[in-house]
Specification:
- It is a single chain.
- The relative contact order is 0.12.
- By secondary structure, this protein is α+β, with helices and mostly antiparallel strands.
- Strands 1-2 form a two-stranded parallel ribbon.
- The chain has six helices and four strands.
- The chain has two domains: about 60 residues, ABC transporter ATPase  like domain (ABC transporter ATPase like fold, Up-down Bundle), CATH 1.20.1580.10; about 70 residues, Rossmann fold, CATH 3.40.50.300.
Length: about 130
């Protein structure tokens, strides 16, 4: 939300859920995504990668069992995209959550435990796709 700081963006879902530790948890999540010193900044004052990391922290705020990520690196340069993807992979591993990721990036897809490849809206065998 553009009118809220990074800290407030992370805080809102927890306040809605009634978490008593919302402020402390928002601070911890900012630290987890490497933005402890940027919590007072508004989205327009953050880079694309920083905005994406705030979005990840917000998504994690209420400990979801499943993370749905639609093109999480789509608007980022390759270096920042790798950092964001590494963060997501670390989150998945340390929190033992399920992550469903949608991407057009073959390198990113190759990091998945399993893949479903679609062509023209229909599933295809990705081993066949790799030989094309």
């Amino acid at each position: 939300m553009p009118s809220l700081t990074a800290f407030e963006n992370i805080l809102v879902p927890m306040e809605i859920a009634g978490r008593r530790d919302a402020a402390a948890r928002a601070k911890r999540l900012l630290g987890e995504v490497g933005l402890s010193d940027r919590g007072h900044h508004y989205p327009s004052q953050l880079s694309g990668g920083e905005q994406q990391r705030v979005a990840i922290a917000r998504a994690l705020s209420n400990d979801p069992p499943i993370i749905l990520a639609d093109e999480p690196t789509g608007n980022l340069d390759s270096t920042t995209g790798k950092l964001v993807m590494q963060l997501l992979l670390d989150v998945r591993r340390t929190r033992q959550t399920t992550m469903m990721l949608v991407t057009h990036d073959a390198d990113l897809a190759s990091l998945a435990d399993s893949r479903l490849v679609l062509r023209d809206g229909r599933p295809v065998d990705d081993r066949v796709e790799a030989t094309r």
